[in-house]
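Hey, can you fold this?
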Amino acid sequence: MEITRSQFVKGIRGTDAITDDGVPQYAFVGRSNVGKSSLINALTDRSDMARVGKKPGKTTEINFFFVNNAFYLVDLPGYGYARATPQERAKLKKLIMWYLTYSGAKPKKVILVVDSKVGVTDFDRDMIMILTEEKHSFMIVANKVDKITQKEAAASIVEMREAAGDVTVVPFSSRTRKNLPQLLDIIFS
C-alpha cells in the first residue's frame, strides 16, 4: 500500500453526514500525547497533515483526512489528558464514545495507538473493552519504540497482546518510521 494523495476534509464535534457517507474509514484512537497525529503524518508522508503540538490534547474534534481518493483516516481526540479540566476530559471522552458507538460510522479498522514506553494504561484497557464490545476490527500500534531498548519493546508488546487478546500489534516509531511499509500493509489489508 502506498499513500500518494491526502487532504484534510473537516473536523466535527457531533452529528455530521461524513460519518456515514459510504467512504471507508480507518480511525486512530489513543491516549493524549501517544503520537496519533504524528503517526498519521508518517503514514501520509506529510509533516503537516495532522496538527501536532508540543502540549498534549491538541486534537479536540474528530478530524477526517481523505486519502488516495478512496478512504478517510479519522483522527480522534486523545483520552486521559491530565491537564484538561474534568469537564473538558468528559467532553472529549463523550465525543470518542459517540463516534465509536452511536455515530453511524463503521470504521473498517480502528488503530489503537499505545505508547511503548508507558505501556497499556487503564484508559487503554477501557478502550480495548469498548472496541471489543462494539465488535470493531482493531489493531494496536506500539508507538515510540525508538525511545526504549529492544528488550523493553518486546516486553511492552507482550503486555499489549495480553491486554487485547488475539489482536495484531505492530511496533512503530513516527520519528524513525521503523516498520512503516509493514504497518501500511497491515492497516489497509
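Oh, and this one too while you're at it.
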Amino acid sequence: MHRVRTDDDVHATSYAARWVDRPVPKFRLPTHGLEADAAYHLVHDELNLDGNPALNLASFVTSWMEPQAERLAAETLGKNMIDQDEYPQTEVIHERVIAMIGRLFHAPADARTIGTATIGSSEAIMLALLSHRTSWRNRRRAEGRPIDKPNLVLGADVHTCWEKFTRYFDVEARIAPMKPGHYTLSAADVESRVDENTIAVGALLGTTYSGQIDDLAGIDELLTRLKRERGWHVPLHVDAASGGFLAPFVRPELAWDFRLPSVRSINVSNHKFGLVYPGMGTVVFRDESDLPEELVFHIDYLGGDMPNYSLNFSRPSNTVILQYYNFLRLGREGYTRIAQAMIENAQALTRGLVETGAFVALHDGDTFPVVVVRAQDPSAVDVFAVSDQLRRRGWIVPAYPMRPDAEEIKVLRMVVKESFSRDMVDILLGDVRRALASDHCKPRVSSSPDTPNPARRPIC
C-alpha cells in the first residue's frame, strides 16, 4: 500500500534545460507532457539510486539473460498470454513448457501434464491450494461431512504467500515452529498436526531461510500410511520455487517430486533458477483429478473457447517464451553445467566465510547455491552490522532472525546466481574480512543501570 502524496514536490529543471526545461510534478499528472528523451532521462536517472542487481545477493530473481533472449522479450511485450485465440502459437509454446516441466518432475508418462504458467510462485501456490481445498470440500460433501474447518499443515520456513493463502481463503494454518538447529518441516511435525480436515501439507524443496530441504520422503511415507490406515486423502504440495530447477540437475537421484506418491502438485519459480526474467512461476499437477473442473473457466468473448485457470486475467507472454528459449538453448546439459557452477561458487564463498573464524554455515551446500551463516560467537560479531558495512560497499546481503521458536539465531544469506563469478566471490570475501577487522561489526554492550539485561546494539 502506498499513501498518495498531495504536496507540490517537483522534478526541477536539469541538464541545463537541454531536455527538462520546466518543473515537473512528482505526485500529480503533469498538465503538459515531455519529449520522449526528457521523460527517459528523468526516470533513468532516478533509477540510478536503486541497488546494483549484480551486487544484490538478497534476491533469487534472475537479473541477466542473453541478448537474443532480450530481443525475444521485446518482440513479445505486447502479447497478452490470456488471448489464446489471437496468439495461438504462444499457447502452443506454453503447453510445451508445461509438458517439459512435468516430465522434468517425473509426472506420470501416460497422462497429459496438467498445469499453467503464473506470474510467480505465489500465484502458483495459491492455485494449487485452491484446488486441494475444493477437492477436500467435494469429498467431504459426498460423504455428508462438515466442511467448515479446513486446515493446512506447513512449517515456519515457508514463504509469506502460504500464510496469505490461509488468511485470504479462510483456512486454519497449522504451523510447525522452528527450533535452534532445526529449521525445516519433519514428518513428526506433520503427524502431530494433520487430521481429516487437512486440505494439504506444504513442504519445501529449499527454504529461503536456511537453504535446506524439508523431510519430503518422510512426510510422503507418513501421508501414505495415514491414507492406508485411516482413509485420509491428504495431498502433499511441494514448493520447489528455489529447488525445482536445481535438484533435477545436481541431485537427479533425490526423490522429491511425482516419484513420491503423495505429491499431487508442485510449483516452481521460473524467474529464479529457471534463469528467466521476472515474473514467471509454474504449477503442475500429478493428473487431471487434482484440478477440479469447476475451477477452470471457459472464456469465449475474445474469440474461441479459452480455458483459463489463474488469479490474473492479463499476464505477460514473454516470460513463457523466454523459458522455452532457455530450454532449447541450454538443454539438460546446459542447466546442469550452470547449476553446478553456481554451487561451486557458493561452496567457495562458504569456505571463505567459515575460514574467517567468525561464521558457522547452516545451508545445504550440495544442492543450493544459497549461503546461510550465523555468527560463531554472537557476542563478538553482529550480523546486522556486517550487512550494513557491506551495503556501504554496494553489496546487498540481508541479515535476519530465524522464525519462531528460533528467533535468537541471526543469520546472513547470500544467493549465488549465474552472473556471480568466482572473482566476485573473492571481492565479497575481501570486503567481509575488512568489515570484521574493523570495530564496526562488534556489538556494543550497554552497561546502563537502567538496563538489567544489557542490550547489544551495533555501532553502525
